[in-house]
Design a protein that fits this description.
Blueprint: E1 2-8, H1 13-16, H2 30-43, E2 50-53, H3 57-68, H4 71-74, E3 79-83, E4 104-109, H5 126-133, H6 135-143, H7 155-175, E5 180-184, H8 186-196, E6 214-219, E7 225-230
């Protein structure tokens, strides 16, 4: 059995400002850092073998804060090491090194786990947008499965990139018995949970993830869920 831990990043600066964020790369707020630190204390005893994050700094910050408090890091001396995409033309061998793999926790960043693209809404205040377009329209843009915000992605579009990556990269480790931490975003994780728990498209508007709250699945060698625990507030 393995542990698959999903965590939405701590509150970002634009979460605090009630703005649509999407692909805009903003950091955690002070509260977001505190949320990540609280999550780290809840996860400190879990021996994480590998970590996956989006390319966005708020998810990376959350992952590194959580990994930095692990017993395997503080006691055993393991070090999180970010692995860059070698196909990126700007990659200069950043993660090439000679070392001891048993002393490292690999952290893989991938755009497949990025938040959904909110298009023309990015940077806009959510309350003011609701005043302009109406609460129901904004709710459709934010929570429905297939409705796209202007110029942006629907949750269905997001799932088209997250789920294949989840199946091919992340679940491969979980099926092999490794404990996996995934630090990502409200909608990229919603799309993964939709697939993982076989949630219907009609139920998806009610699925909302709190920032900084770990969701821990126990996974068998076939990739099936044999247990689940939410450590923190409800989601």
């Amino acid at each position: 059995m393995s542990k698959l831990i999903l965590i939405r990043h701590g509150q970002s600066a634009w979460n605090a400002a009630n703005k649509f964020t999407g692909w805009v790369d903003v950091p955690l707020s002070k509260l977001g850092v505190e949320e990540a630190e609280k999550a780290a204390q809840k996860l400190k005893s879990y021996p994480i073998d590998v970590c996956f994050t989006s390319m966005l700094i708020r998810a990376i910050q959350t992952a590194l804060i959580c990994l930095g408090e692990l017993d395997s890091v503080l006691v055993q001396g393991k070090c999180p090491v970010i692995h860059h995409d070698a196909d990126d033309p700007n990659w200069h061998g950043w993660d090439q090194h000679t070392g001891e793999p048993d002393e490292e926790i690999p952290v893989f960043t991938c755009s497949a786990l990025d938040e959904r693209f909110y298009g023309d809404l990015q940077g806009l205040n959510k309350a003011k947008t609701a005043e302009k377009y109406g609460d129901e329209q904004v709710k459709l843009w934010r929570r429905s499965y297939s409705v796209r915000p202007p110029g942006g992605e629907s949750l269905e579009d997001t799932a088209a990139r997250t789920v294949p990556y989840f199946q091919s990269r992340i679940m491969t480790h979980a099926k092999a018995g490794e404990n996996v931490l995934v630090s990502a975003h409200g909608n990229s994780l919603r799309s993964i949970i939709l697939h993982l728990e076989t949630i219907s498209k009609e139920e998806i508007p009610q699925l909302e993830l709190a920032t900084g709250v770990p969701i821990i699945y126990e996974i068998n060698s076939e990739g099936g869920i044999v247990g689940k625990e939410v450590i923190g507030d409800r989601w």
